[in-house]
Amino acid sequence: MGTTEPTAGAGGALEDGKAAFAARDLGAAHHAFERAHRRDPRDPHAMSWYGLTLVLVERNSNLGVTLCDQALRAAGPDPDLLLNQARLHLALNQRERSVRAILRGLELWPRDARFAAARDAIGIRRPPVFGFLSRKNPLNRVIGRIRHRWLGRHTPVYELSPLALGVPLAAPDEGRS
Question: Cα–Cα distance between 132 and 114 in angstroms, integer?
C-alpha cells in the first residue's frame, strides 16, 4: 500500500487527517490535524479534529475539550463537530456527556446514520415498553427484558471506542470482492 503525497492547504491537511483517522492511524491523523489547525486556527473543523486527537494521542484533555467546545460555539451545531465531541467525552470516560452529544445530534439530524450507529454502540436506555406504567412495574420489566433479548439478536454489534463511534456498519455486500 503506497502513501499519497499530502495535499496542500488547511483543507487538504484536514482531509489527510480524516483519511488517517478512518484508517486508525492516530499519529498521522494528529499531525495532519495539527497542520490544518496551524494553517487556519479559526476553522472549526480543524479545531475540533485537532482537539479530539490531542486527547487521544497526547492525553491533553484540557486543551482538547476547550478546542472542541470552541469549535461548536464558533460553527453552531454541525454533525461532525457533535460526533467529535461525543468521541472526545467517550475517550475521557464521560459517558453521560457523550450520550448528550449523541442525543442532540439525533434531535437535529434524525436520519444521520452516524448518530444512529453511535446511539446503538453506546447503548442509550430505551423508554419503558408501556409508557403509562412505571419503569419498575413487573409487566414493563418482563416485556422490557424480552425486547432487550430480541433486539440483541436482531441488531448489529458495534465497537465502542472513540475511533469507531458514529461509524455505521458496511452493508453485507460492500465488504466482499
Answer: 31
Q: Please report, for residues 9, 129, 146, 148, the alpha-carbon distance to residue 160 in angstroms, rounded to integers and kept in the order given.
A: 33, 26, 24, 18
pTM of the complete model: 0.74
What CATH superfamily is the domain 9-154?
Tetratricopeptide repeat domain (1.25.40.10)
CA 16 to chain centre: 18
* Digitized pLDDT (tens) for each residue of the chain, 177 residues in all: 444 444 455 678 899 999 999 888 999 999 999 999 999 999 999 999 999 999 999 999 999 999 999 999 999 889 999 999 999 999 999 999 999 999 999 999 999 999 988 888 887 778 899 999 999 999 999 999 998 888 777 666 566 667 777 676 554 444 444
129 contacts 113 by C-beta, under 8 angstroms? no
Domain ranges of the chain: 9-154
Cα gap 29→95, rounded to integer Å: 24
| Cα(31)–Cα(128) distance, integer angstroms | 46
Rounded to whole angstroms, how far apart are CA atoms 151 and 128? 14
